[in-house]
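cron nightly-structures :: item 1 of 1
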Amino acid sequence: MTMDKRPLHEVDGPRYHAVMLVGPPGVGKGTQGKMLAQIPGIFHVSSGDMFRELNTNSKFGQIFQQYAGVGKLVPDDITIKIWQDYMARKVREGVYTPERDLLILDGIPRNITQAALIAPCVKIFKIIFMVCEDREVMFKRIRGRSLKENRIDDAEEVVVRYRWDLYKRYTEPLIDHYPQDLIRIIDADNIASDVLHQILSVIVPIQKKHFIPPLM
């Protein structure tokens, strides 16, 4: 049998192997993503970081500003084009090596439409569903983080609850969209190190089975 020797991400077009982080605002996805990003063999991509890295003079940067400047969400198809461009650039720069690095998707896809758009580009190994039963705890985390980062508008009650409603309406349905054997529920109502331990118990076996050992 003849084996296709092309890198995984180039077989039938770009192909990235990933784990998704899903959870409501304030559940700790950003905190966990930052810690995971420090581990060799893991490449963390958050939608926020992706948009912040856009060159405001570039085509995508100008499109992003047209929407963000008036408080609107970037349309799904444009978001995914920005993501594809971002990923291709990280590969070219050598920051991300698909054969060695497990991709952690945080905020991408944001909804079922985006999930369909990225499906040809990504193989999802697991979906880490971070849950916290106490909604008020998460609201408190968002307000505290926003004040710490001097993002006063995000600390307002109406903004916090609006973000929660958007998540419940558009993002949480992803959990029912994907095959249930991909879903791993993580109890996020714990200290950060305990949550990280739970997540690593999911992704370390994936790294061992599917990836070339990372360069140390």
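cron nightly-structures :: done
The chain has a mean pLDDT of 87.
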